[in-house]
């Protein structure tokens, strides 16, 4: 009898790896150095493979998404809707973060603030940031994984191919074929995700397990309550009212991407799984291949929440009370900072410096939360990618409706 062995679905495998990592991590708290030296490197290998595949995936999937729309105006409307949704939900997120931070403020511990040290990243002005979006050569954005520049290249190439008109048939085919090759390659890498998840998470639990119970528990709790509130309220309402699907179905299908984002703390790394999840939810490929890579780069609702909660936390540790205008400034800068945050582990913490400086809070305060940043990061990344997916479902649904309306008009 040649019975085929039934394979556990990838989502289940990732889930088991996640639980196992937490259990093993807690058991190995006294051997955190071992997990750091011998388990983490395998996680790093997995992350490296993801980093390798992500640049070509973003470049080709955005290009193919644009080309398949065949119309620059259509790309413009979808792009505008996407960016608008991203900005609005991020502003919502930071507001929730600030409210949550204020409610929890009385529980925040008083922490000695004398021996803090955080190295301030080099300051760049807003104009420099804008200039840096545009690449000055073709290769370096790919080498440095500068995703905003890669997106600009993809947009320019995509538009140029559409503009070529009839001559572009061969190029379109070639682009789609190359995209398929990278997608296959990504599929192979993703098969390793349970191992990757285990090796990434286990050392984090081993070295931070005790800290969770420590004095930072309250600020972590505040951030996680806000993350959950934002995801459950804002995204549920959005997908139900504008996306036409039930929130329960949305979160159920999103589980593999959610678990992966939680373990890897990288939006960009989660991109491939996120694409699979939204396609299962019925999103159009031409929309997902454009909206998701863009979101993984510029849409960071979880990061915005974290910045709001941490700004309040750091202020209260220093005995500073933030005024309303200061909070408004935080909403604005955190929304902008989340655009500039790269979808890789830890980048949100660097951008927190920009938010703190904007309202004159001591940047050194970052040292207070830096030790447990990874734990904040796992939650904020999960929110980040769920936000991208909700946008994708909504834009895709609107496009389908538009097409149906058009088809009805054409029919006599
Ligand atoms: N790790 C987050 C992400 O990939 C970014 C951050 O650090 O906030 O979405």
Automatic annotation (TrEMBL):
A Gene Ontology BP annotation from the UniProt entry? dicarboxylic acid transport
Q: Which GO terms describe its cellular component?
A: plasma membrane
Task: Cite the Gene3D superfamilies for this sequence.
Answer: Sodium:dicarboxylate symporter (1.10.3860.10)
What are the protein's UniProt keywords? Answer: Cell membrane, Membrane, Symport, Transmembrane, Transmembrane helix, Transport
Q: Which InterPro entries match?
A: Na-dicarboxylate_symporter, Na:dicarbo_symporter_sf
Q: How does it sit in the membrane?
A: Multi-pass membrane protein
Q: Which Pfam families match?
A: SDF
Q: Name one GO molecular function term.
A: symporter activity
Give the subcellular location: Cell membrane
Mark the transmembrane ranges: 45-67, 83-104, 147-164, 185-206, 212-238, 350-372
Q: What is this protein called?
A: Putative proton/sodium-glutamate symport protein GltT
The uppermost taxa in this organism's lineage are: Bacteria, Bacillati, Bacillota, Clostridia, Eubacteriales
């Amino acid at each position: 009898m040649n019975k085929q062995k039934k394979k556990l679905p990838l989502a289940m495998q990732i889930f088991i790896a996640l639980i196992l990592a937490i259990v093993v991590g807690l058991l190995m708290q006294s051997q955190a150095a071992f997990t750091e030296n011998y388990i983490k490197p395998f996680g790093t290998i997995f992350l490296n493979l993801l980093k390798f595949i992500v640049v070509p995936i973003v470049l080709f999937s955005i290009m193919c998404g644009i080309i398949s729309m065949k119309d620059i105006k259509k790309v413009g409307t979808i792009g505008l809707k996407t960016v608008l949704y991203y900005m609005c939900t991020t502003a919502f997120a930071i507001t929730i973060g600030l409210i949550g931070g204020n409610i929890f403020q009385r529980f925040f511990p008083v922490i000695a603030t004398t021996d803090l040290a955080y190295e301030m990243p080099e300051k760049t002005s807003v104009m420099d940031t804008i200039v840096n979006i545009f690449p000055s050569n073709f290769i370096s954005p790919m080498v440095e994984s500068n995703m905003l520049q890669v997106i600009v290249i993809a947009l320019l190439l995509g538009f140029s191919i559409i503009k070529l008109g009839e001559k572009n048939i061969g190029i379109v085919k070639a682009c789609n074929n190359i995209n398929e090759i990278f997608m296959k390659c990504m599929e192979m890498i993703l098969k390793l995700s349970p191992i990757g998840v285990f090796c990434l998470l286990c050392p984090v639990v081993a070295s931070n397990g005790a800290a969770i119970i420590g004095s930072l528990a309250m600020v972590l709790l505040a951030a996680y309550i806000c993350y959950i509130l934002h995801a459950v309220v804002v995204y549920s309402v959005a997908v139900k009212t504008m996306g036409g699907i039930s929130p329960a179905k949305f979160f159920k299908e999103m589980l593999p991407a959610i678990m992966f984002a939680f373990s890897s703390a990288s939006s960009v790394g989660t991109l491939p799984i996120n694409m699979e999840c939204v396609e299962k939810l019925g999103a159009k490929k031409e929309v997902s291949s454009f909206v998701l890579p863009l979101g993984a780069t510029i849409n960071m609702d979880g990061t915005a929440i974290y910045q709001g909660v941490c700004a309040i936390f750091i202020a209260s540790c220093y005995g500073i009370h933030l005024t309303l205008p200061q909070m408004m400034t935080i909403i604005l800068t955190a929304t902008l900072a989340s655009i500039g945050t790269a979808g890789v582990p830890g980048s949100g913490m660097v951008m927190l410096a920009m938010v703190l400086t904007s309202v004159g809070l001591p940047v050194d305060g970052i040292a207070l939360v830096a030790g447990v940043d990874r734990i904040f990061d796992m939650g904020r990344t999960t929110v980040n990618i769920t936000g991208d997916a909700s946008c994708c479902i909504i834009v895709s649904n609107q496009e389908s409706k538009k097409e149906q309306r058009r088809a009805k008009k054409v029919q006599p």
